[in-house]
Amino acid sequence: MMPALALVAAYLIGAIPFGFLLVKWKTGDDIRASGSGNIGATNVLRTTGWIAGAATLILDIAKGYLAVWLAGYLTGGSELWMSAAALAVMAGHAFPVFLGGKGGKAVASFVGAYLCLTPIPLLATLVVFVVMVAATQPVPKTCFRSKDAIVESAGHHRGRKLGHGALHRARASLLRRPALGLRTGYGRAHGRHP
What we know:
Elements: H1 2-14, H2 18-27, H3 41-48, H4 50-74, H5 79-94, H6 107-117, H7 119-134, H8 139-158, H9 164-175, H10 179-182, H11 185-189
């Protein structure tokens, strides 16, 4: 019962569209009609300003961390269910029930989830992310590569495969959904936008 509750809670926490709510509160606009159409921190930063963008980033990271921490609390620290909650919070952000299933890329919630699950591999991968961005790679492409690196290094860091295979496959499925390319400047620049 508790594992199921943890997963439902993780999804609902992830589905809270902080970017959408902050922009709506500050300007009255729908963030989905501006910029890339994404509800994440990058689009909020570009369209509404750094304060709203930073707040969105912090809140999205926090919800990822909270969802995984709560799952650990409810399941006695089970790595399997904490990993599943990481997927659930990402799914909530990417497919929020409150916005008709049209959310963001789940990068910040991913960071928050892994900050709770495996902080050392996460911090190492963030260094890689900064270096890749500095090398002028498009941010969406860099985010996907960094996520791959976090998942792989997390498995080696923990020294066990508990839930890792399923987590990796599900994470890959989430990140490669077509909607990602359609709502980013990267997708339009590479001919993926209709």
